[in-house]
Each structure stands twice: as C-alpha cells, then as structure tokens.
From TrEMBL:
It is found in: Cell membrane. The lineage of its organism: Bacteria, Bacillati, Bacillota, Bacilli, Lactobacillales. The chain crosses the membrane at residues 59-84, 96-114, 120-137, 142-164, 176-195, 233-254, 260-278, 290-310, 330-350, 380-401, 413-437. Keywords: Cell membrane, Membrane, Transmembrane, Transmembrane helix. InterPro entries: C4_dicarb_anaerob_car-like, DASS-Related_Transporters. Pfam families: DcuC (PF03606). It comes from Jeotgalibaca ciconiae. It comes from the Bacteria. This is YfcC family protein.
C-alpha cells in the first residue's frame, strides 16, 4: 500500500472513457486522457483498509460460513474417517491422489471458473495430504494449483475466456483444441512437480517447508484414526448432496459465492443434526470455526485495499495505457509475448479475471489487429497473463484466504511455487509462439 501510494505522487493520473456493454464497463481504446493528480496521503492509506474490508465483504463472509460449516462437519469425524479409509485403500499408491485431484479441480477451473470456490476444499485437501504422509503444501496445491491450471488454460471458462472472446468478437470457446492441449501439458508438469515434492516429504517429514508448523498434526495423523460408522456415512451423503447442489447451481443458474456459502452453511447445519448434535452444540462449533477464519477474512480486505489506493490515485488506466502503447512497433511473435508480459503486470493491479478482460481487451484487440496478431492469440495472452500469477500475487484475495486457512506463510508458499511458476510462464511463452506461427484463430 505504501509503495502504491508513493506511485500516485509520481505516475501521472489519467483515465479511459468507458461505456456499458453487455452488463460490463468497457474501456474505449485511444480514449486515455490525463486528469488532475490525486496523490494518496496518510489518511487515504489508512482509510483504504476499512474500505477494502467493506468491498471484499462477500469473500470475507463466505470464509466465515465455510469455516463454521466445515468445523461442524469435521467435528463429526466423517472427514477423518473417510480419509483414513481412503489412505488404507491407497497404501503404496498414495501418489495417485495428486494427479487425480489436480485433474478434478483443473476441469472445475477450466469449465466453471473455480477460484473462490476452492476455499471450501482447502481444509479437506490438507487433511487428506496429512493422512497420506504429505504436508499442508501438498494439500493446498492439489486443490489450488489444480484450479489454477484449469482457470489459466480455460478451455471453457465463461468468466475469463468467454468474456474476453466476447469483447474480441470471437465465437464463444472457439480455439478450444489448443487450450485443451495447453491444459494437458500444464496438468502433466504440475502433477510431476507436486509428486516430486510430496515424495521428499514422505521420505523425510523434515523436508517439508512447513514442518515446524505442522509437526504436531503430522504425528496425530500417523498415530490416531477413526473407524467409519453409519452416522459418518449419513453425514458423508449429506455433504455429497450439498456439493452436488452447489455444482448444479453453478452450472445451471450461475451461482456465485453468496449462494455457495448459503448451501455450504446449510449442509453443515443439517450434517450436525444428522450426527445427533443439538442446536446449541452446532452453534458453538459454527462460531468456533468462524472465529478461526478472522485472520483470513482480514487479509482479504487488506489485499483489496492495495488496489483501492491505485484506483483512488487514478494511476491504473495510466499504467495500462503506457503498457499497451509499448507493444506497438514490436515484430511478430515478440508482440504476442509482450502482450503476455503486459497482462501479467496488469494482473497485479487488476486481480479480477473478468475485470481485467473488460479493462484490457478493448485496447488489446485493435492493437493485435495493428501489429498482425490474431485476436485469438491476444485472448490467449490475456488468459495466461491473468491466470498464472493469481497463484502467487499479494493482491489476490483468494490466495491470501487460501494461505491463511492453510496456515502456510506467504514466503514459504513462494519458495515452493516459485520454480513451478517459472515453468508455467515459460509454457505460456511457448504456446503463444505456436499460436502466432499457426495463425491461431479463426481470426
């Protein structure tokens, strides 16, 4: 926030003209103009924090509902019993869990645009990983990284590729073949990377980057277990019904975190009653679980306040305009790679996938036409630039929530994911070069 506030004193303020199109606010290319400087001072910085909390309230309250409901479900022992049973079945083949879960969440990210929704599954992913002899990083990665590669490849992602193609006037989900190939490459490489780390942890738990934080949990998982009983089966079926309801609602009615939170909360309460808990017990467990999520909810609001400082200082459009103009004059494939790099930079200041599409694609489409790049290639540059970095950016509220719930320090996550992020970014360059030389289209 301090760095961004300082930049509002240095970078000229400016903005694009905007229009409403299809329910979205679209920037008009070539309309950037300077406005009065609005440098952000001390009071603006501290005021951005409560504003950030307010503007991210939907995610914060979603986190509270998830924490409360999952605590009720977890207290029944269903998750632990199920994971123990699965770990017994998978003895000697534990590593198969990694590519399977990556594929499941990857498809969810590529088709349903899973992002905030992954928060629901992080605690279960961690419990499963610990039961199989891995650590919290593996548990988070099989959920979060799976959704990330799916969202980035986005072969049928309506919230990123769908919007970008609409603005570029391309047929919806056209060019799906190359995006499926991209997804499969990312899946194979990411599976191998996580399995390699998981193997090191399994051989020696002290190799875990979060060993000191999870030492107690690892010992508990190794020495205790709960046998599955009839009540656990009932709770499991209720949980499955809740997840199916959420999936149906997202696909059929476009549900978002408000509706997902409502269903998950209801699932937790019903599961509590089915296990035999009275209303007071359920309420106590729910409040205890929500209380554990306070840090996660706060950090989401603080991450949002960084963007608020830039918005109020009127420097976002100036940065976008400068970066877009820097592409002009670059030859061929270099222009496509430059677009990709620009989208990565813009992703830091506009962490929303759909928001970034609305802000940048109206500018990038005519730019692509001018430098001889197909519009489909420009869309791919956007989807990769807007997707990969969400897994490591400080301004990503979802990542901050995931790490807070997982109790994984940000620096440890960066140390783990950094090499994989480098590989992802290089894969993006390779596919953009292929897209350029194959005239990735239809146009």
């Amino acid at each position: 926030m301090l760095i961004m506030a300082l930049l509002t004193w240095i970078i000229p303020a400016g903005q694009f003209e905007v229009i409403e199109q299809g329910g979205r606010t679209i920037s008009l290319p070539g309309s950037w103009h300077s406005v009065d400087q609005k440098p952000q001072g001390f009071f603006d910085i501290i005021n951005s924090i409560p504003r950030g909390l307010s503007e991210s309230a939907d995610i914060s309250f979603f986190i509270f509902l998830i924490g409360g409901a999952f605590t009720v479900i977890n207290e029944t022992g269903m998750v632990e019993a199920l994971i123990y049973k699965a770990s017994q079945k998978l003895k000697g083949r534990e590593s198969l869990v990694i590519p399977v879960f990556l594929m499941i969440f990857g498809i969810a990210g590529a088709t349903l645009g899973f992002s905030e929704e992954t928060i629901v599954f992080i605690p279960m992913g961690i419990s499963l990983a610990l039961a199989l002899g891995y650590d919290a990083i593996v548990g988070m990665s099989i959920v979060a990284s799976g959704a990330a590669i799916g969202f980035s490849a986005g072969f049928m992602n309506p919230f990123a590729v769908g919007i970008a193609q609409g603005i570029a006037e391309l047929p919806t989900f056209s060019g799906i073949g190359m995006r499926i190939a991209l997804f499969l490459v990312l899946w194979v490489i990411t599976s191998f990377y996580i399995m390699r780390y998981a193997k090191k942890v399994k051989e020696d738990p002290t190799n875990s980057l979060v060993y000191s934080s999870y030492k107690k949990e690892i010992e508990v998982e190794k020495n205790t277990f709960i046998e599955m009983n009839k009540r656990h089966i009932i709770v499991g079926l209720i949980f499955l019904a809740g997840m199916c309801t959420i999936a149906f609602g997202v696909i059929q009615y476009g549900w978002y975190i408000q509706e997902i939170g409502a269903i998950f909360m209801t699932t937790g309460i019903i599961a509590g009653f089915a296990y035999g808990y009275n209303p007071s017990k359920i309420a106590d467990l729910f409040v205890a679980g929500a209380k554990d999520m306070i840090f996660a909810a706060l950090i989401v609001g603080v991450a949002r306040s960084i963007v608020i400082v830039m918005e109020d200082g009127m420097i976002i459009d100036t940065i976008v305009n400068f970066l877009a103009n820097s592409v002009q004059g670059l030859p061929g494939a270099f222009a496509a790679i430059a677009m990709y790099i620009i989208q990565i930079i813009i992703n830091f200041i506009i962490p929303s996938g759909s928001g970034q599409a609305a802000a940048t694609m109206p500018i990038m489409v005519p730019l692509a036409d001018a430098v001889g790049i197909t519009r489909q290639t420009a869309v791919m540059a956007y989807q990769l630039g807007a997707g990969f970095m969400d897994s490591i950016m400080l301004t990503s509220g979802v990542l901050m929530a995931q790490l807070s719930i997982s109790k994984i320090p940000y620096n440890k996550w960066v140390r783990y994911l950094g090499p994989l992020m480098g590989i992802w970014l290089l894969i993006g360059v390779v596919f953009l070069v292929i897209a350029y030389y194959t005239n990735y289209g239809p146009f």
